[in-house]
Amino acid sequence: MSLRYLGKRILLLLAVMWTAASINFLIPKLSPRDPIKERLEQAAMMGGRNQTGLQAMTDAYSQQYGLGEPLWKQYLHALLKVVQFDYGYSISQYPRTVNSVIKDALPWTLGLGITSILIAFFIGTMLGALLGWPRSPRWLRAFVPASMLTSAVPAFVLGFLLIYLFAFQLRIFPLAGAYSRTATPEWSLTFIADVAQHAILPALALILFQLGGQALQMRGLMVMTTGEDFITFADAKGLRPRRIFSRYAVRNALLPQVTGLVMSLGTFIFSTVLVETLFSYPGLGNLINSSIQVLDYNLLYGITMILVFAVCIATLVVDLIYPLLDPRIRYEGR
Amino acid sequence: MSAPASQASSPTRPPGASPVLSVRDLRVEYSTDSGVVKAVNGISFDLMPGEKLGLVGESGSGKSTVALALMRMIRPPGRISGGQMLLQGKDLVPLPERTMRQMRAREIAMIPQGAMNSLNPVARIEDQIIDTLEDHATERRSKKVLLDLARSALESVGLRREVGRMYPHELSGGMKQRACIAIAVAMRPKVVIADEPTSALDVVVQRQVMDTILRLQDELGVAVILIGHDMGLMAQSVDRLAVMYAGKLAEVSPIREIFAEPLHPYTDLLIDSLPKLEDRGTFRGIPGLPPSLKSLPPGCLFHPRCPKVMDICRQEIPEYLELRPQQFVACHLHEERHDRAAD
Ligand SMILES: Nc1ncnc2c1ncn2[C@@H]1O[C@H](COP(=O)(O)OP(=O)(O)OP(=O)(O)O)[C@@H](O)[C@H]1O
Ligand code: SF4
Ligand SMILES: [Mg+2]
Question: Domains of chain A (ranges plus CATH)?
Fold first, then answer.
């Protein structure tokens, strides 16, 4: 691993962040809607207040949020925000800053998302490895159509089914939220148990969706790998089937499987947004959804940039540990 | 159907020695959507201890299938559908997979055809040798002992001990094939099957690798089945040559005899198709195509291409007979002679 390679990767990361920041900045600008005006109008309608002065107020607020400035200035400003990790005030939850809103939601998403994706990856990969192994028992094959089914049904539809079955009909798990209204957040066993109980259904929806895909992908990779010459030769060496399975077949099929995991991060985040919304889970996903509805550009911008950053970091981390998995990859920087 | 008499004596074989491997009427079929492929269609031969037997034939004639069958490594949709493979008198065909696994590498080993991809890309060479040593070990040996054994095995095929630390991608094609050879003979097997061990290498390296195999063969006294379609290479390397055509053995003869007086018209054509000094570079193939293994022609499988075809060839399958000691052929041209000799 050379510093030069690391430098290249970080430059690439910056380029991705810059592109994402630009797109994120531009797309909302294409919308004809005006978040401040809409909010004020809403308030005016609800309060039955006088409509006069609405435009003046809109302009004043726009100024405050930096929305009245010329586009290029706003753009530079937006880039600066990314660099400083400071996205200003939330429009919908004023006077809270975007950072503080995100800080409250982030742990929930990380907890739910990372746990789900890791569980899905490990179980899916192991299941797929067994499914693609010629010596596996036949009954295992029943998992192939099952995997196809769960990976074909979007995570939020799975979530609906789970809610209906386990929360609504059987009432084993709570319908929504991250913890009971009556519970106070603290580091106690009862609270942790409460959180776990609330997390099971949304996590299950995410896991089931991801797991099927991971299993099918690994199965395909295993079938390909077991057709390789080095597996035939391993057989000819009279190795124990267990060793051939783990050290020859799985070990090699794992390489593209890990790459695939990184590629699927985007889809996974998208699913998390929908599932969180469905379960009113107080994470980033839910927040994205609500910030789109109320056109909280600042918040939306902050969250998307955090997510893009997270994906970039995850990719970088996998890239850096990849040479440990595959001796053929060396970042000599030559 | 007379099986070859294994007790027949000859100058190259000490009288009374018993073959290390006897194959009798071996059959392998692949079931495909469009029918059953009889890839190996009843072949019989003996392999003496320390003997070098060549196996030649056109592409698709079933050579690799024979090799895999001997290793009991035919995978679905293929299966061994009949016959016996007696390794030191013990039939491998009915052995449970668990027992057969222990025979591989220890009793009967294979040098793979595609050396380029036959090594595990993510494991060090020495670890790949140690895997073999460990999975056949009868007692526990320390890592140090195993490492030393592995590196010595590399030395025995002309590689430096340090090569053990390397990964396959750091080795040249010739080095990889040597490493494979080191792995194949690490357990001192009685029989080694080398399926076109040099086909992916350039000519100079081919020669070197071939020399390594032959030197090891000599040192270890292991019997070798060398598969290929290079008659020239065979002439320099083996004691006896088996000629395969469409899943059957056409002829098996000592290498000298087969070049001096080929018995089967197909062997004749094979030798004839060798590039000669005067017309170097022009490789004359054998006219016509081998039959489809799904719908075999009646009579002699070679009759559609045979220049000496007779009426009987189109109807009756020629018997595989030991025409002279150590010389087997399946051709109607020689049946009469055999009958006369038998009288
Ligand atoms: N897995 C398989 N499924 C179906 N048919 C097969 C399979 N493997 C081999 N065959 C068929 O068996 C026949 C013999 O194949 P084999 O690989 O043994 O030939 P070969 O003599 O080794 O040829 P080559 O010189 O090209 O290596 C061929 O007709 C081939 O099509
Ligand atoms: S049996 Fe007949 S067709 Fe077959 S090789 Fe002999 S002469 Fe030719
Ligand atoms: Mg072959």
Answer: 3-84 (no CATH), 98-325 (1.10.3720.10)
Ion ligand 3: residues, CB within 5 A, are B 64
Kind plus residue range of the DSSP H or E element containing A298: helix A297-325
The average confidence (pLDDT) of chain A is 82
pLDDT digits (tens, 9 = 90+) for A8-67: 888 888 888 888 888 877 877 776 666 666 767 776 666 655 566 667 767 776 666 666
Contact B123/A243, CB-based, under 8 Å? Answer: no
CA B62-B64-B67 angle, to 5 degrees, is: 110
Best substitution site from B296, B309, B334 to test ligand 2's pocket, by max atoms within 8 Å of Cβ?
Answer: B309
Listed as own residue / partner, the contacts of A264-270 with beta carbons closer than 8 Å and 24 or more positions apart are A264/A210, A264/A213, A264/A214, A265/A117, A265/A311, A265/A314, A265/A315, A266/A311, A268/A113, A268/A117, A268/A206, A268/A210, A269/A113, A269/A307, A269/A310, A269/A311
Residue B247 alpha carbon, nearest atom of ligand 1: 14
pLDDT tens figures, A133-153: 988 888 888 888 888 888 888
Which of A229, A247, A325 is facing B123, going by the closest CB pair?
Answer: A247
B118 contact residues in A (CB cutoff 8 A): 229-230, 232-233
Q: How many CB atoms lie within 10 A of CB B102?
A: 14
Max Cα separation, chain A?
88
Mean pLDDT of chain B: 87
